[in-house]
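> agent: user asked for a holo structure of the chain below bound to nicotinamide-adenine-dinucleotide. Plan: (1) validate sequence alphabet, (2) canonicalize SMILES, (3) run complex prediction with ligand conditioning, (4) return tokens. Step 1... ok. Step 2... ok. Step 3 dispatched.
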Amino acid sequence: MRTLVTGGAGYIGSVMTRLLLDAGHEVTVLDNLSYGHRSAVSNGAKLVVGDVGDELVLNRLFSQVPGPESPVPSYDAVLHFAGFIRVPESVEKPDLYFDNNVRKGIALLNAVGQARISNFVFSSTAAVYGEPDKVPVAEDAPLLPTNPYGDTKRVFEELLASYHRAYGLRYACLRYFNVAGAFDGLGEDHRPETHLIPLILKAALEPGRVFEIYGDDYPTKDGTCVRDYIHVHDLCRAHLLALDALSNPKSKTQNPESLIFNLGSQNGYTNREVFAAAEKVTGCKIPVRMAECRPGDAPALIASSEKIRKELGWRPAKTLDDIIQDAWQFHRRNPAGYPD
Ligand SMILES: NC(=O)c1ccc[n+]([C@@H]2O[C@H](COP(=O)([O-])OP(=O)(O)OC[C@H]3O[C@@H](n4cnc5c(N)ncnc54)[C@H](O)[C@@H]3O)[C@@H](O)[C@H]2O)c1
């Protein structure tokens, strides 16, 4: 398949690019490098440095190519990872998030529609559920995001449903819980970093750095927040399955033209448990202190991933220890992150 991966120079998009190439697909990466890294893009993929909201860039990318009888779409599928991802920043600057994650996303969707590209896979998030009443959270739980980041993802999911109804775009919304780990030299290098596991590992590596736990009076077993961690390799494998289900007319999946799946392990770990696992895996005594809880942090987010297990036969293969071990290797090899 000819695929376009937006945000393919970022953490998850770079691993996805690698898996697509390994599976024999052609990959073009579209990334404006605002947060991505040129050196995270695998050899074998073509990197186009540009913005998903730039119509000129999109027109150039999506101009049709000659086919056996008539011109055909330039890509078979778009996998859309590009976006801004920091919840606290979205609370301070919602305009930035609606602009990048929604307005520019609409430009991309319009270009996809005009180019008659049929398959679209979208990086959604557990943040669309807000603070769910019931955990594990199933896909039919109410979508009540508690911050603008989650709002942008919910809105984009609605846009996909509308574009599907109006123009027949086949799409998958994959709602990720907490993604972590590394694969084949590709790992997490967000600047600034806000995710738990890399923050713990950075505190293990950088002298003077202390890991902060945000709040210990949540209604959980040790008072710290509970999250569900999924290895980036398991997550990207699920994308390959979703892509296959979307593009295969013989797919036995229910509603194969509009897939919605949670991606998580169905296991929850408190922040203290993740911290303890990191000390065990790294063999380091890691400096830690308690800090104020952050507004909008749900006490517990655990996925029910029964739906994708049943419909696509997906199962996460990696444990929390595997996730930390692989991330630890990446951070030890790249203490200052990617070179660019
Ligand atoms: N990392 C997680 O735990 C997690 C959880 C839930 C959902 N997600 C979603 O997964 C996607 C990827 O997350 P990530 O952790 O890899 O983030 P990332 O910041 O590492 O990657 C995002 C990439 O998108 C690029 N980008 C942003 N805006 C762009 C634009 N307008 N045009 C072109 N490129 C642009 C950035 O340069 C970056 O390379 C995001 O959409 C995020 O919301 C991530």
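> agent: step 4 complete. Summary for user: The longest strand covers residues 119-125. Residues 279 and 285 are 6 Å apart (CA to CA).
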